[in-house]
User: Fold these one by one.
Assistant:
Number 1:
Amino acid sequence: MIDKLEIQSGLAKRVLNTLPYLRTAEAIAQELDKTEVMRNILQTSELTDTITKIKVKLMQVKDIRGTANRVTELQILDDIELFELKAFSLLVVEMRELLLSANITVVTLPDLEPVVNILDPEKMRIPHFYVYDAYSPELAALRTKMKTLQMDEKTEERVLDQLQFEHTELEDRIREKLSEQIHPYKKEINEALVNTATLDILLAKAQQTIDMQLCKPEISTSTTRYIKIFNPQVKEVLWQEGKKFQAIDIDIKQGACLITGANMAGKSVILKTVALAQTLFQFGFYVPAEQAEIALVDEVLLCIGDEQSELSGLSSYASEMLRVNAIVQDVKAGKNALILIDELARTTNPTEGKAIVNAMLDFLTDKGARSLITSHYSGIKARCKKMRVKGFVKEHVQGQLTINNINEFIDYSLIEDTLDSVPQEAMRIARILGVDEELLDKAEEFLDDEEKKNRN
Amino acid sequence: MFIEEILKYNSIAIVGLAKNAGKTECLNYILRKVKNTGKRFALTSIGIDGENRDQVCQTPKPEIEIFEDMIFITSEMHYRSKRLVAEIMDVSTQQTSLGRLVTARAVSSGKALLSGPADTGSLKALIQGMKRFDVDTTIVDGALSRLSLSSPAVTEAMVLATGAAVSCNIPQLVRKTKYVYDLICLETAEPEMIRQLIDIEQGIWSIDENGKVHDLNIPSVFMLENNKDEVFKYGNTLYVAGAISDKLLQFLRQQKQIKEITLIIRDFTKMFASMETYYAFLKKGGTMKVLQKSKLLAVCINPQSPEGYCLDSDELRIAMQESLGIPVYDVKRIENQLIQ
């Protein structure tokens, strides 16, 4: 989602990567409010023209933080740095005027007019720079003299070299003076850089809320509740295939919640989407849902089980357990985290796996940790809330089921579940996927044996 | 003179047949000639150029003299060491090994070291970007053995510099120059064929009698050996998008129907085969054509070799002129004569 933000300048792209994870309700509310203001501005048709002009200016902004640091440290700037500073200051002055004329106050830019004036002695207002003749009559005179002597064939190279040396010295002195004159505006220059990046990011954020139909989340103090939450990436992919994403409702209270459901029922997508929404919220972004109330957490702890573990020499079970242990330690340390674990203990035997799931659910419920855990295991007896993905809609299933239309036959919504058995549809889904008949028939036979044994 | 010709093009490449072939002198000569034409010129290079000292031979090299109001593009490092007053108009975001590229306008005349983008793609973009500074013609100073920038895909026209640095033996120097000249003069294929082939940038293709293009599915000319029987299944006209090697030409030459074979290449800069192989291919009856033809504006000679040996200017010029059939200039001599 972050990659899809339409940010204009390289400066803002770099600043974006350093945005902080917000830990207070006030900070998040402030960011969300700003986004809302900008969203309203974007939807005001009279301001479209101004916004387009600002975006064009933003596109030209370059990351001159290095130069700004040198201004702050009162170093002598060279021609290239002075040029960058002038070009940037001119852009800021122009964007500031645009913002003021449109009464946009959600982001303000400092006045860099004095910096422009220092670097534009000829009042040309174009982003070009050199050590102008206008800075010093002495320099102007020297340049004229050099030009005349250069034209004269009889002038010795030695004389010209001497003059060139004097010229360089003089230019250096002027650059030193200019750097001193600019130094007092260090605060404004740095502020302009920060605020330009903020403006750029805010515009992109607000645009994305419109493009992706995101909602402004309310800040909750108890339950996190999403109405019709959706995964933008999956939605986009489905949309391109002419399919529709089924948004779902979900509540996340303190304590553990077990989510069961058949394969392909979208359990992993739920976890990833919840993680995404929580993270966006913590950075002050709108979230992909129709409505949302979200409680703050210190951290989102996600265990999807797709870490590359072979390289570190750990089995997938071992690396999952280490990750789970880290989560347990965090919870014990009193961290207020959102814990999302996909198919806990799935890579080991079902008997012990089930025990681990039970224990984890029990532990998390005890600690009151907000958590969602998905599992295929039946017979989970631990104290926790249980939810199930509805799964296959029976009445639909007369039609020809294929891998391509399977999602039309699944109801992805979550319902409260009171049973402790889970739907067993692994074989059926494997058949739909077109897995070899011979293999599946054999599997059915084994299944029968197992069941017989269980009955005895 | 060829100076009037230069004014007609948006971009010109000055390329030397060898290091020290007189390319920089040729460039300085052109710049002196065009400075008062009322047109605006931009000046850049590909890779590092304009060093005070030749990086390879350590022989002194003439500096590039930039005149008032000309635009030049060079790296940050070379910009800082310039010996003229210039106004910065742009600084690129793209990095080169010598820093970002600075576009500046000369406020006074003086000398500077030129460097430019490291690849032809960026160079092409740079030339196109010069329009916003009202530049009429961009002149690109070539680097060591970098004929590729004179590709018609990058610059519209070229000036070729050749001289004693290529060979100290006049007949041999003339022969070597004539070879490059012949390649530059290769005829273009039929317009309809060009239209079909121009966007194909790799592989070996065959064009049948009806003008239909077939992919021979031979990824490179080096794989030709393994697909010998496939090559002519559609016909005798072939298009090779990449480099042309000795091996390819030798293979074609050995075919029974060599007289019917036409080889189409992108442009003359794709030819990497030796002079001998090329002429042998022609002698056997093979035909070669290009998709894009270069416009050669002039050939400049430098009778001085980097080792200090000096050929007879007139003898060289006349021999070269006779062989190529176009005017050839010794720019240094023209200048000296003017001073006297």
Number 2:
Amino acid sequence: MIHTPMGPAAPSPRPLPSPTASPSRPARQSTGHGQDSISSWPLMDRVGYLLCWAAGLLLCALAAGIVLVMFVKGISYLRPGLLLEHPSASQSQSGSGGFLDPIEGTLLLTAIGIALAAPIGVAVAVWLSEYRRPAALAQAVESGIEMIAGAPSVVLAFFGLLIFARPSLAFLSQTSAGGAVYGRSFFAAGAMMSLLALPLVVSATREGLAQIPAHMREASYALGKTRATTIRRVLLPSIRPSIASGTTLGMGRIIGDTAIVVILLGASLHLEGAGGTPGLSTLRGTGSTLTSYVFENSPAGEGNAPEKAYAAAFVLLMMVLALNMVVTRLSSGKPRWLAGLTGPMLWRWMPWRD
Amino acid sequence: MLRHSRWQRLNLSAERRAELALGAVSVAVLAFVVAMLVTVFVKAWPSFAHNGYIKWFFPGGDVDQQIKAIVNSPPDPAHYVYHLRAWPLLWDTALTTGIAVVLGLVLSVLSAIFIVEFAPQSMKRILEPVVRLLAAVPSVIFGLIGILLVVPWINQHLISQGRKLSVSYVVQLNGAGLLVASLILMVMIVPIMVAITVNALSAVPNSWTEGSAALGVNRWRTMWRVSVRTARPAIIAGAVLATARALGEAIMLALVGGSRSFPVNLLDGRTALFEPVRPLAATIITYKDNLSVVPLSQTLYAMAAVVLVSTAALSLAAWSVKQPLKRYGIRT
């Protein structure tokens, strides 16, 4: 085979792989093909190369360090009883019970948040992707979602306090003897938590919808189906994995959030119901989650029981890791690296794509 | 003449109804965001108004003492105390966020180049879950590790007795402070920057980098001069998003920032690294239990409003970053 000399005018002996040829592969081919050896590079370039390795290894070391520390500390302080005992107020670490109530609180709060975020998120995403009329309104909604994604959870919690302390919403939380509405309940915290998950559900759903080829929609229209029917029967079923991964990421966000819990859930030790109706009373009542339990038992909190905090944080980390695995399973084979992590409207930032 | 029901007169097909329902949900979400902006500001207004608006942001006095005075203000609304000069909080916010974002930018760009270009396949496969994990660890766990492990270690090994004595008349050094806060904050915001940068770098058309390689440019320079330069808007957008996240971080900073508000004095040289910090969001968390005091809650809402406006302004800044691209006819 004749070796073609390198140069701008030299015709390429075979067609170059086009960037869009294999959309299912996240990384593009490296440019070097191992021909130039690093030892022949200028010093600055070699330094850069080494720094890249150092940065990559540092990330691995950090992740390994966090997981290792939590494993060692968690396993040494975690007893099975802790998972099943109710917490109790006590001066000593041995007398303060377990964290059954925080675990229940975490699960309940996640359920409420996702139950609200998933349908709303899918509806907004479908409207944004499939209808978007009038266009100006769609733009505004898009930036609204972006704002929710950027808003700190402390601010969301404060806003929630303003909403749910209204007398007209008193039935969602407790009312004190003086008639003041408490504004802190599972309802309130769950509603605000759903805002954390909402942008993730919206972006995952939109991304899924964007990947459906046009001929699927056209085939459905050709069969005489309306747009609404197409969305419900064709589009949504085929993007179920995307919705699931967005929802799972949202659950991770909700489980890990502390600010909304300590401000809007009251962070009381037990799940304290309000009112007579069994199920409803819990929802109207206050409680705590694993995150607020860790926070309150850290040296900065009121409990100051580091061993309990480590054990609870270990359980929390296990939950997050499990969700992480689900997301990894769901998003394997996705074209984007870390699909879903990178925020709602990410593709806008890569204008040179397509 | 036929009498039509209201819905029939509107003559809505099922199709149109579906569109309207979905649109209504979207508009409701938008209305919610607008309501959030408005109500937080309305609630925060007295705090700004009583401090002479712009003076709220000025330096002057110890914030903790001012807040204590606000908490203890008399129950009569006419005599509420509002006096606050929030500069120490703003300064600490800017400092922690700035250090974290600058360090994070360097780390994330380098590791993104590594992931896209230099990492062997096996490393690449490890790094995706690693970054995902770092992004998923709750902030309270970062804070817990910080306060129980990193802070005591720094207190024992990095701060000498002489250094503690040198500033003991203004502030106690116990290890919790600027250094720990901004380093952990950096670890928390790096994943999002890495993810955005990796996606941007791998979206650079192959023909561009291949053209560079064909001219005999080595892989590092190709990455640095072609790919990173092309991806610059995305890298900046990632940094801006990360800044917004860092501004809003409250729990971790409340844990490892030290227990008092103190404007870090950069003139102290290296000692400044160990001085306690308490940014805006962390202050809100610290005083959460006193929310029933009306003037304090209005003050805290004012802080929340400042955080909210800064994050919104950052979104706007990110939007304007990409505007130059339109000139080259690149569709956004």
Number 3:
Amino acid sequence: MTLPKDYLGAKMGMWLFLFTEILLFGGLFVLYSVTMQRYPVEFHTASQMLDVTMGTLNTVVLITSSLFAALAVIALQRGDIRRSKIFILLTILLAGVFLADKYMEWGAKIHHGIYPNSPHLTDWPEGQQAFFALYYTMTGLHGIHVVLGMGLLGWVYWLISKGKITPEQHVTLENAGLYWHLVDLIWIYLFPLFYLIT
Amino acid sequence: MSEHSTQHEGHGPGYGLFIAIWAALLVLTATTVWVAGINLGFLNVVAALAVATTKASLVIFFFMHLKYEELTLKLMVLTAFVILSIFIGMTFFDTAYR
Amino acid sequence: MTVAPADKGFFAPTGKGFLRSWLFTHDHKRIGMLYLWCILSFFGVGVVLGLLARLEMLTPGATIMGPQTYNAIFTLHGVTMVFLVVIPSIPAAFGNIFLPLQLGAEDVAFPRLNMFSWWLYIIGAAIALTSLFTGGGAPDTGWTFYVPFSAVTTTNVSVAVLGVFILGFSSILTGLNFIVTIHRLRAPGLTWTRLPLFAWGLYATAWIQVLATPILGITALLIVVERVMGMGIFDPAKGGDPILYQHLFWIYSHPAVYIMIVPAMGVISDIIPVFARKNIFGYKTIVGSSLAIAFAGSLVWAHHMFVSGMSDTAVMIFSFLTFVVAVPSAVKVFNWTSTLYKGAIRPEPPLIFALGFIFLFSMGGITGLVLGSAGTDMHVHDTYFVVGHFHYVIFGGTGFGMFAAMHYWFPKITGRMYNKTIATTSAIILIIGMNGLYFPMYLLGLQGMPRRYYDYLPQFTNLQVASTVGSWVTLIGLVLMFSNLARGWKHGQKVGDNPWEAATLEWTLPSPPPTNNFDQEPVVTHGPYDFKHLSPGGTDQ
């Protein structure tokens, strides 16, 4: 896919791939919505145990990284390769910040004995267990996508350095950017669903 | 369908617009955190999802360029979201009436 | 063989070494052939497993194996047939070979992705097969992997569902490739209303592949998470809900049956006009019904769950919607028969298989209504009736669609013709054998014989024996058909580029088609079934 002859076709292909990602998470959103409807009170209680400040911080980090990814495309379209590369590095950096924040959040929870199948958790009301099962599954899968996105952006950075992505042939960068925006998009829903239904 | 649009046309938005969108996203994030602090009962969930959907639309239409894409692609995106909402919505026919 | 390299078309050596030129090829025709060989090999494995399961049911109690082996055999039969044979069958094999040719394109939109997709198929298949011999032994859950059993059984479910996940990914990438190919690579003049109905079938299928398969992916991952980490999403003791597993599973797996059948319908829609020498009746309604099936297929999944304990409201709504989805399928059957009406019918083998398809698919489709209606489903749910219905639709439908496609495009792929008399005979034997094999299952189901049971009451013996004998007749038909094709490939009479006098673009090429497909980009000036433009020799005027 590095040298697509057909610009619109390449973008269409990427969008179709994003649909599959949306539907992959979609299965989890199905589970989340019906489980929340089943245990509204327990979800409310469990949600209060998450750190809203950390969550908000991560939302800001991810939105900003998304901005940099979008700016990287504009920079490259305008022929400013150096600036484009800086924007990509900033995107990857913020992705790292996001993961570090996530690591601390998960670490604190696990430290308190809240992790899948933990003896502590299995004593709780069923609804709260379900909340944390979904929390770990959905943010975990999202985290994997953040890591994949970092890899993808790193690869694109390397391709630009090698001159294989140029201001004339920039669709690979655009597609990597689309992927990164999708990661952001999923988080935009995960954040309120887990942190803000208190 | 415009079969021959090339990729070096400088069409589309510039830095300024994107930074404005970014600012709007931050404002919406602040809003949703603030609203969550007020107890509105079930409306809290509605408000949180409404704000999230607004934010998602901004990302899709501007950061992801959908506003500047051709109609075919827009319809495809619509299809994907319609199907997803069918999957979520119709599962409730079971769980909501059990 | 004494064929000059030029006559070998895309089979001609590329100078890269035999293995490399095939295993790492970007040529859609070679990738399609790779799929075809793999699919037919796995089909052979699946047939053997099915025959063994049938043989075990010949007598009550143990016939040739113990209960655990029987559980493993029917699970394997299901997983192999569904995920390795039927889902990829027509799109991955014939779609890859003929979609770009029908569009007048050089290749699919993303040739390298296409190769990657085949590799994923092989890797997924290898992992699925590994699950048989490692860990706690072959999975015994049935192909549906229902929780809670799949979450607690000691057999090797985790590895098997990982294989399914990868196979799903392969299917997604093929679908993605086809959508972009159809949107972007149509030849000049090939408007949407001149697209062959096979291509339309693949288009509708591709959308289901892209939008529904990810749900299978997440479901498979959740089983692994459940088994490895005890996450509890489907465990009632931990606030989970096992019925939600069934929802997720069928959100994919019901649309998946349309992934299986819609391409076969496309093949039939392409074949019937050619052998009736008439334009297809109701082109636009066939297109519309393909798209309608693809869409409506996403609305009916819970009709597999009427006895699962889900709400009565859901039972009624999903039952009603199931009847809606029968409409577009019936529309197609009416269109095919109307196309034959007053046509100049040539009873060549592809048409015989196509007629077999219509007959067997209708048998399966009509009994589907019995299952879709919640009241009658309560009686026959999880009985042999379901097994019979499913096999009529999938073996009689997709299987016959595949066989029809093989006989229709055989001269295009090989440049030769098989023995037509034997081909027709094998088709008739297969139709008889399949009815012998599956019709008793309807009766067994109505009498209350549950599916997947190892043992049965003596009163079911006669029908079980009839079904097993039917499986042997089917086997004879299959052996006859495949040996005839194999002989035709080696020794068949050479035929021209367009022996059926068909009007779609693939028939304008030499047989087998050259590696580069079209020397000049073709310009399409008429519809896919407009035979008036053909001269008697079959060439375009």
Number 4:
Amino acid sequence: MELLSLSAVQLGRAIREGRTTAVEAMEAVLGRIEEKEEWLNCYITLDKEGARRRAQETQKRIEAGELRGPLAGVPMAVKDNLCTRGMRTTCGSRMLETFVPAYSADAVMGLERAGAVLVGKTNMDEFAMGSTTENSFYGPTRNPWNTDHVPGGSSGGSAAAVAARECFFALGSDTGGSVRQPAAHCGVVGMKPTYGTVSRYGLVAYASSMDQIGPLCGNVEDCGAVLEAIAGIVPESDSTYVHRKDSFQGALKRDVRGLRIGLPKDYFGEGLDEEVRNALLKAARLLEAEGAEVDEFDLGLSDYALPAYYTIAAAEASSNLERFDGIKYGYRAGNAEDDLHRMYKRTRSEGFGKEVKRRIMLGGFVLSSGYYDAYYQKALKAKALIKGAFDKAFFGYDCILGPVAPCTAPKLGESLPDPLKMYLGDVYTVAANLAGLPAISLPCGMSRAGLPIGMQLVADCFQERKLLQIAYTYEQCRG
Amino acid sequence: MQNGISDEMIEYVGILTKLELSEEEKEQAREDMGRLLSYIDKLGELDTEGVEPMCHVLPIQNVLREDVITNEDQSRELLGNAPCRRDNMFVAPRAF
């Protein structure tokens, strides 16, 4: 049996049925890491011995009948902004180079309870700020499909690790597209659940009103299984919304008859690569042939999502990242022991990278007195209007189909010189974060250059089941 | 809106965000922030008269719980992350 060609759910089944073991699965993954990691740099921290030990312990518990779930014994990777007790969590930053959390994120614990086995922590843009995984203190990750290209970001290490089979699935975080866009660029499935579906406890905050943890997987079925393990209310979280005893896996059926799918005209206009557009229209036709009602409509306000997003995200980031002060944890600059404020300034200036400083400064500006109303409040009002546009759209449609990114994965080094241009690449993904909506990115073709193309489906709040059903149907009929 | 970012503004933002920038970084920050703000100014086109600013999209409420200690004593683990510590305390530079 070629273990690495199995999906996470198939592997879990094979382990439960005794056809393989958690230990063999871990060895297969570690073997692949040995072979590929030098080129790809998916991981910031790998704990091979710990992974072997955890796999052995898990196998014993599976044999004892204590673990019976679909992910028991399956090797997973976790983005390095999710706290893992006893395992270094850097956020891709120099600031947290030596930080070892004293607790694990709820989402990580949910997966550990389900029997998934942690391999290591994946590379990311520093504090999740970036769209290419090049803004990492630990060097860029490369795209497994073509190592001259970036994997997307900010969860680029997670997406590349899943695509290269350096794990069977991974967790990422999505504040403006950071799960969906790397998933699209690496040809895997990535989902951002409704804001509040997954507890953010233990996720290092970037923009708290939009951050959401989500799975990156080989297929839609795996995505349902991972979501099942991480969704739900927990007392530590202040914003996990409702725990509905939905079975996400139960939504995996091939049926879109009568479902209304809308293609926003605004998303198919100027700026969208021709190959991406054609792949999306082909996917829409496939869903139509399966019985969905597909048509175009005007979503409206699309041009305002990105400026509103960057204003709000920068404001929240500048506030959230105040905590890095060189005292309780993380980096502390030397030569400033005589003056607290000098130490703060030096620590933050040396500990944060360029992009992080850029966003902190923008955030500090839009929140400063005299500019607060004109920028920050204005963005919150724009957000209200954008949310209204989506409410209206979901009155007529079950789901919106559109691109994830304007083009396929850019080459390494291409995006760094022009930050605004890089931000513009998030134009199709940020609206779901502003409006709190669930969205999924799934592969829908390859470019002539051999890079994956992603399709995005967006549904109304808490309609994850519908989203998974449509995505699953597409995956099945795509063949 | 005026987007010529002055040197004073960069200094001020540096103070607010506790960042110390080199001359070169300041110049870059001026340029970057000017461009980003010009882009964000697009929001000015929107008529938001009478629109309430939206902080949260969902009617999220705080989840309250009893204040019960559930964790064990982790002070060693927590202090272990401090860049400078003495006995059972964080060490900070002189504040005044």
